[in-house]
Design brief:
The complex is a heterodimer. Chain A is largely without helices or strands. In chain A, 0% of the residues lie in helices and 0% in strands. Chain A has no helix or strand. Chain B starts with a helix and ends in a 9-residue tail after the last helix. Classes of the chains: A little secondary structure, B mainly alpha.
Chain lengths: 10, 215
């Protein structure tokens, strides 16, 4: 499954 | 949040502040590319579509608001402010937006992690940010005398990108399953675009001479 923790960056 | 990510955000913030300082206090936007500033405004608009729906932290929300607000403020200053706009170098800032926006948008439609609207816009913003500095670099090359603030502005932007790469390397080794090819490759391309500028920036600093890029 995809991890979306790059979205916590600006 | 690690030290690289935080330092990266701070140098990004510094670059914006240096630019606003130049525009607001000296009332000049000489050597600043309006095209690049408009592309950045578009980048933040496309990336922060989730600003109200996806809350991560107060820090994130405030920084997003600062980047959105400042990018539109800078564009407003260059286009509309009656004194600032006179110093805009229209003749040399000739890069066409569409040459960058269109390929980035098509690429985002083709290569993305998930084909939802917000996801495509987010991916588009990553691709566009990678190349948005190009009009500014072209303008610097055409400008004979680059003033200190403009040089520092580009330097801080480049430092922000380099620190983000350190952040990704750090996160890769410390967080489970932290793999983001799209973010990494577009980020790497973006950082490489600054390599040439950095070379001349450090040379001018070392030899204590005025910064000038070869044509």
């Amino acid at each position: 499954c995809f991890q979306y923790n790059a979205k916590d960056e600006l | 949040m690690n030290i690289f990510r935080f330092s990266g955000d701070m140098t990004h913030l510094m670059s914006v502040l240096v630019l606003l300082l130049k525009i607001h206090t000296i009332k000049s936007c000489a050597g600043i590319s309006l095209k690049t500033q408009e592309l950045y405004a578009l980048v933040f608009l496309a990336r922060y579509l989730d600003i109200v729906t996806n809350f991560i932290s107060l820090y994130n929300t405030i920084m997003k608001l600062i980047f959105l607000g400042s990018s539109f403020m800078i564009v407003w200053y260059i286009r509309r402010h009656r004194i600032v706009r006179r110093s805009y170098d229209k003749e040399h800032d000739t890069f066409r937006h569409l040459f960058l926006v269109l390929p980035c948008f098509i690429l985002a439609l083709l290569i993305n992690e998930r084909s939802a609207f917000k996801e495509i816009m987010w991916t588009f913003s990553l691709y566009l940010e990678a190349v948005a500095i190009l009009p500014q670099l072209v303008l610097l090359q055409r400008t004979k005398n680059i003033d200190n603030l403009t040089g520092q502005y580009v330097f801080f932007l480049g430092a922000y990108r380099a620190l983000y790469i350190c952040n990704w390397i750090y996160r890769y080794f410390t967080e489970p399953h932290y793999v983001h090819w799209i973010t990494w490759i577009s980020g790497l391309v973006q950082t490489l675009l600054y390599a040439d500028f950095f070379y001349y920036y450090f040379n001018s600093w070392k030899n204590n001479v005025k910064l000038q890029l070869p044509a």
